[in-house]
Amino acid sequence: MMERLESWKLALERLRSAEAANWTDAGRLVAEIARMSTDTMLRQAAEQALPVLRQAADNDDHGVTLAARRRIGVVLDVVHDLTAPRFGRRNAAPKKLSSEDRARKMLGLPLAVQLTCEDINRAYRRAAKGMHPDQGGSAEAFIDLAAARDILIHPGAHKDA
User: Fold this and answer.
1) Does any domain span residue 89?
2) Which of the 8 DSSP states describes residue 158?
3) Domain membership flag for residue 93
């Protein structure tokens, strides 16, 4: 599949950089991509480009050829994304936040900064104004907010969930 992507990429780059592109050939190439690609995003980009490329093959209107070049560019961008080297662990799940980090996010506090009790209480009061049941918030959200404040004020008393 990667060899096919590389050949498509090369052909699309030639089309985009050509002075006078052959839109009939471009339509055939994009139709092949739409038919043979296993990637949903690439298939959709190719399918959306096809009508414009066919229209560009049928007439010499400058606006249509500009639109066709843009559509070729969109398909090429998707191919570039698929062929770009990936670094790090692929498909790795994001690291789970600790209960303290979740509490900080809930209160809108930065993750890696030392906090005082006053900072925590100030953030709690600011967040509680909108989440209080009397102000239209839900009781569960308000209880979760109070629990987040407790976790931050007494960090050793709570286990990670």
Assistant:
1) no
2) S
3) no
